[in-house]
Design a protein that fits this description.
Radius of gyration of chain B: 26 Å
CATH superfamily of the largest domain in chain B: MetI-like
Number of strands of chain A: 20
Oligomer: heterodimer
Order of helices and strands of chain B: HHHHHHHHHHHHHHH
Number of domains of chain B: 2
Strand content of chain B: under 5%
Strand content of chain A: 35-45%
Number of domains of chain A: 2
CATH class of the largest domain in chain A: Alpha Beta
Strand order of the largest sheet of chain A: 6-7-8-3-9-10
CATH topology of the largest domain in chain B: MetI-like fold
Distance between the termini of chain A: 27 Å
Number of strands of chain B: 0
Structural class of chain A: alpha+beta
CATH architecture of the largest domain in chain B: Orthogonal Bundle
Number of helices of chain B: 15
Chain lengths: 365, 310
């Protein structure tokens, strides 16, 4: 298995630049997820790694050798497509065997490799069926089988679970994680679904508008988002951002007057922030509890059993969301008091960059 | 809960009120179409079958039973014509399929000016066959024709050559014209089918190292196979029945060298006024094409099933 290094990858389609100098170093046997909203360039980046698109500039280095100019088949990668890309006229066996047939592999070796892949993916009794006779999850497994038999250095997955229903997606997440452990392979996985990213990745690359916003472990991204974009993208429900004005900073942190009333001293490295600077204070809904401090008029209440997602407005008119206990004494259209621990808050400057929190949970190291 | 539809007087309930049953009402709706088909298709067909049992000509007709068929089936020339018709069909359809496939592949290739090429392939199909054929008559002309002239210039021919004056050259010339007329439509159908093949399939194969030819053979052809089979069979039926091209170029000559079943039928019934004999030949064509249609249905079902088309 292999390392994957991307060096200053750029890509333009005509005059439209979609990737602006991407640098990434992916370790051997690592499971890395590219995540970001539609149009952020994550699929393009994956296709560049695969060789299906050529980068406008930059190098792709797999296991120490520059593969930027090589055809996909010579890069030592295999790819699983969102649409599965199964050949409808071929049986499961022939679909999985396709890359080996292309290589004109001898039958004994071919049978053993396909058999092994089928065993790993629990497809042994489906080998004679055509893709049209399989369920979505089974088709996905066939597509994975086809990528396994080639023993690639790097596995590439392009939104492989998007076409499955929610329940199956959950199952397949677990299966893919297990597969990664069994194969001990380097895997790069593209998704727009932050839950897939959080649950499966060793490290996540958050992309926005063709740039890497942050590259780190899931908990790092959650507890120490580098930018306002990452903070709002990771975490469900989305982080609340309350505008405020810097009142001053001292050894205890940054003092901010929140728009709509209230003042907090937040334990962050204030950097060059000065009195009067505009900032945004990020508060994750799950860190908020009933109490005193903020007052919110409740508009919509979603009781999910274990948790009650409460949407409403602060006195300033700012929209706000709190994830309260399942049986919290809240009613729709009522007004409630909320509180949050200052250590749990994030602060972003006017450019959207974070001021590093001083108190970090152990897992986020 | 009351079903709203029950309370709304629809056409069927209104018909019921007027004393018509649902079945009768349905028949009433189908009737115009049935009458149309009856006049256009069924009556001429039945009339042809009836005529084939008579010795109808300009002087009148009388019932002769199976005599026309007996005469037809005992004429060696008839078998020669049937053989020629099948040869004509197989050769022409094969070329149309091959040329159509090549044309569609080229039109599907990502080359600049693709839209222009797609337009340029259309004229043989768009211009009236008669006009196209008159153009070809000039091309085949031995004295003034482009083909004879060019052949002499590059040294293939020593002197003027009338392509349509000899049995073999006339037959193959007619095939060339028939292929010219028939290829654009086949190409367009193949092109449409090729464009329906998911790009992911090609990319997946490319990642696996499949060459262009391998992808064409293992992905494109199987994916468009149902369309290839449909076009081959439909084209076979049309080519079998192809009349105008041969008639305008050679009228079935020289010495019967381009006479296919449909030309033979026309010559017998309309040319020689032997309506009874002509009708027997027409019925023979109906039987052969009927069998073809059965084959078509069966084959298409099997192909669709094999290639995973629902």
């Amino acid at each position: 298995m292999a390392t994957l290094n991307l060096q200053n990858i750029t890509k333009s389609f005509g005059s439209a630049a979609v990737l602006h100098g991407i640098d990434l170093a992916i370790k051997d046997k690592e499971f890395v997820v590219f995540v970001g909203p539609s149009g952020c360039g994550k699929s393009t980046l994956l296709r560049i790694v695969a060789g299906l698109e050529l980068a406008t500039s930059g190098q792709i280095i797999i296991d120490g050798s520059d593969v930027s100019a090589l055809a996909p088949v010579h890069r030592g990668i295999s790819m699983v497509f969102q649409s599965y890309a199964l050949y409808p006229h071929l049986t499961v066996f022939e679909n999985i065997a396709f890359p080996l047939r292309v290589q004109k592999m001898a039958d004994t070796e071919l049978n053993s490799r396909v058999g092994k892949a089928a065993e790993i993916l629990k497809l042994t009794d489906k080998m004679d069926l055509k893709p049209g006779q399989l369920s979505g999850g089974q088709r996905q497994r066939v597509a994975i089988g086809r990528s396994i038999v080639r023993n690639p250095k790097v596995f590439l997955f392009d939104e492989p679970l998007s076409n499955l229903d929610a329940a199956l997606r959950g199952d397949m997440r677990v299966e893919l994680s297990q597969l990664h452990r069994n194969l001990d392979a380097t895997m790069v996985y593209v998704t727009h679904d932050q839950i897939e990213a959080m649950t499966m990745a060793h490290r996540i690359v958050v992309l926005s508008a063709g740039r890497v916003e942050q590259f780190g472990t899931p908990m790092e991204l959650y507890h120490h988002p580098a930018t306002r974009f990452v903070a709002t993208f990771i975490g469900q429900p989305n982080m609340n951002l309350v505008p405020g004005t810097v009142q001053g900073s001292d050894a205890n942190g940054l003092t901010v007057a929140l728009e709509g009333g209230g003042q907090m001293t937040l334990p962050v490295d204030a950097g060059t922030a000065r009195k009067g600077d505009r900032v945004e204070v990020g508060m994750r809904p799950e860190n908020i509890a009933l109490g005193t401090g903020l007052s919110m008029k409740v508009r919509v209440l979603e009781r999910l059993g274990g948790v009650s997602i409460t949407y409403g407005e602060l006195p300033s008119g700012q929209r706000f969301c709190a994830a309260l206990p399942g049986d919290a004494a809240v009613t729709e259209s009522g007004t409630i008091g909320l509180t949050i621990n200052a250590a749990d808050c994030h602060v972003f400057d006017a450019k959207g960059n974070v001021m590093r929190r001083r108190m970090a949970p152990a897992l986020a190291a | 809960m009351v079903d709203i539809a029950e309370r709304q007087p629809n056409a069927v309930t209104m018909a019921k009120r007027r004393g018509l049953s649902e079945a009768w009402f349905a028949w009433l709706l189908i009737l115009p179409a049935l009458a149309f088909i009856g006049v256009i298709v069924a009556w001429p067909l039945l009339e042809t079958i009836r005529l084939s049992f008579t010795n109808a000509d300009l002087g009148g007709e009388s019932w002769v039973g199976l005599a026309n068929y007996q005469k037809l089936l005992s004429t060696p020339k008839f078998y020669e014509i049937v053989g020629r018709t099948f040869f004509w069909m197989v050769l022409s359809v094969s070329f149309k399929m091959i040329m159509g496939l090549i044309g569609a592949t080229l039109l599907n290739a990502a080359v600049p000016g693709r839209a222009l090429f797609r337009m340029l392939i259309m004229p043989p199909w768009i211009i009236p066959i008669a006009i196209g054929c008159i153009g070809w008559l000039w091309l085949y002309n031995g004295q003034f024709g482009f083909l004879a002239g060019m052949s002499q210039r590059i040294g293939i021919l020593n002197g003027p050559f009338e392509f349509l004056a000899y049995r073999n050259s006339a037959f193959y010339s007619a095939i060339v014209t028939d292929v010219w007329v028939g290829t654009p439509m086949v190409s367009l159908f193949f092109l449409a089918a090729m464009q329906g093949v998911s790009r992911d399939l090609y990319e997946a194969a490319w990642v696996d190292g499949a060459s262009r030819w391998y992808r064409f053979r293992r992905i494109t052809i199987p994916q468009i196979m149902p369309v290839i089979v449909s076009m081959a069979l439909l084209s076979a039926i049309w080519t079998f029945n192809s009349f105008e091209i041969i008639w305008i170029l050679t009228q079935g000559g020289p010495r019967g060298g381009t006479t296919t079943m449909i030309i033979d039928t026309y010559k017998t019934a309309i040319g020689n006024f032997k309506f009874g004999d002509g009708a027997a030949r027409a019925v023979a064509i109906v039987v052969i094409l009927g069998l073809f249609s059965l084959l078509y249905m069966g084959l298409l079902n099997r192909v669709n099933k094999h290639y995973g088309v629902k």
